[in-house]
Design brief:
This protein is an alpha/beta fold and 446 residues long. The protein has 4 domains: 122 residues, Rossmann fold, CATH 3.40.50.2300; 162 residues, 3-Layer(aba) Sandwich (Rossmann fold), CATH 3.40.50.300; 69 residues, Helicase, Ruva Protein, domain 3 (Orthogonal Bundle), CATH 1.10.8.60; 59 residues, Arc Repressor Mutant, subunit A, CATH 1.10.10. The chain has 18 helices and 16 strands.
């Protein structure tokens, strides 16, 4: 359990902290009420043990502040000056218990055991309540095909554990949605869920985003910043496009997985974190391992439980269900009443290959809802849907960068400059496409 000990006497803090650490707790110390609140803002705790009499802010005021900001946090008040009035006040303000100095360590152990049992029971009840309230566990995930039902079964199974998950699938198949479903169906659901796209940030920015940094760590670092690993403590961290990590970042991530700790940039303090790591990729990681661009030991750490998402072209039975969902969603936004699709429109949507998968389908339906002038979406609203791949003329130029630029330009032309559609045609994530557009200096299509 994470415990914060607050006392203005350092010898008392050290005594309690040393004992609690030996009992297996993760302990931090504060010498005053304001310092305690600052530490809790940076990183929470399940329990605080605070002295009653302290300068700047007494124990009862600190108790009131903690309970107003963190209602679920438990507080044990200790004092050398016991009065019935103070004890009653502390319990009324929500203190878990009240102890006299010198602290009886056996009595403190029993109190903390009672607190831990209570917290575990609350967490278990919340977990069971979420399971009962959910509609077939995942109300936002739509489909009836055999491929999709297998995916749901895999997600249900992995929710029951706390292990690392690797979600694999083409761009646009709903990898982040699956990650969120895993988090919300797990016992960590009350904790934070944070998502980071590893392909959307250069290496230096990604490092500071994940690990945070200390003041003065680099030019422009005016104050300490908490990174995503630290912010996701007691929750889940989703790293998308994990296959695009640089070799340096792969080493750093592997170390976090092995030690469950890290240092902020420019810092030396080892920070322990309790997170569930969920990763995703649209890359062939086995091929990247073979060519030396992805670490095999990191792959084994990430691929404890793999979930493979089928592309939309392999879920033909789900297309019209998804279409109906998106029509309702965007019709409500546009304040329109749309009955459905013409038979021709249905055929077009079912027979299209959907290189951009669900993300592309959603975008197509949003545009169709906006364009239709009746209560039905017809063939005219779906203009531009074709199964022809992006065709690029080599023109005798086999330079890889030039060919990549030509493919991006052609995809942008076919999609009228729409990033999501162009990314779908190219089979890459939209953030990856934006980075490549910036890299090649491609001007937006008017």
């Amino acid at each position: 359990m994470r415990i914060l000990v607050i006392d203005d006497e350092q010898s008392q803090r050290n005594l309690l902290a040393g004992y609690l650490t030996k009992q297996g707790h993760e302990v931090r110390q504060a010498g005053s009420g304001p310092e305690a609140l600052a530490l809790l803002e940076q990183r929470g705790a399940e329990t605080a043990i605070t002295d009653m009499r302290m300068p700047d802010m007494d124990g009862l005021t600190l108790l009131e502040q903690i309970k107003s900001r963190y209602p679920d946090m438990q507080v044990v008040v200790i004092t050398a000056f016991a009065t019935v009035e103070n004890a009653v006040t502390a319990m009324k303000q929500g203190a878990a218990d009240y102890l006299l100095k010198p602290v009886n360590l056996e009595q403190l152990t029993l109190i903390l055991k009672k607190i831990e049992d209570s917290l575990n029971l609350v967490a278990e009840n919340r977990y069971l309540k979420r399971k009962l309230e959910s509609v077939e566990s995942f109300p936002d995930m739509i489909g009836q095909s055999a491929a999709f039902q297998k995916t749901l079964a895999d997600i249900s199974q992995v929710c029951q554990s706390d292990t690392t998950v690797l979600i694999r699938g083409e761009s646009g198949t709903g990898k982040e949605l699956v990650a969120r479903a895993i988090h919300s169906g797990s016992k960590r659901a009350n904790g934070p869920f944070l998502a980071v796209n590893c392909a959307a940030l250069p290496e230096t920015l990604l490092e500071s985003e994940l690990f945070g940094y200390e003041r003065g760590a680099f030019t422009g670092a005016q104050k300490r910043r908490i990174g995503r690993f630290e912010l996701a403590d007691r929750g889940s961290l989703f790293l998308d496009e994990i296959g695009d990590l640089s070799p340096t970042m792969q080493v750093k991530l592997l170390r976090v997985l092995e030690t469950r700790s890290f240092e902020r940039l420019g810092g030396s303090e080892s920070i322990k974190v309790d997170i569930r790591l969920i990763t995703a990729t649209n890359r062939n990681l086995e091929k990247k391992i073979a060519d030396g661009s992805f670490r095999e030991d990191l792959f084994f750490r990430l691929n404890v439980v793999p979930i493979n998402l089928p592309p939309l072209r392999e879920r033909k039975d789900d297309i019209l269900l998804l279409v109906d969902h998106f029509i309702k969603k965007f019709a409500a936004k546009s304040d329109k009443h749309i009955k459905g699709l013409t038979p021709e429109a249905k055929d077009i949507l079912i027979n299209y290959n959907w290189p951009g998968n669900i993300r592309e389908l959603e975008n197509v339906i949003e545009r169709a809802v906006v364009l239709t002038r009746s209560d039905t979406i017809d063939k005219a609203c779906l203009s531009g849907l074709t199964n022809a791949p992006v065709a690029v003329s080599f023109g005798g130029d086999l330079n890889l960068e030039n060919l990549e630029k030509k493919a991006i330009l052609e995809a942008l032309r076919q999609s009228d400059g729409k990033i999501i559609e162009a990314a779908g045609l190219l089979g890459i994530h939209r953030n990856t496409l934006r980075l490549k557009i910036k890299h090649f200096g491609i001007e937006p299509i008017e």
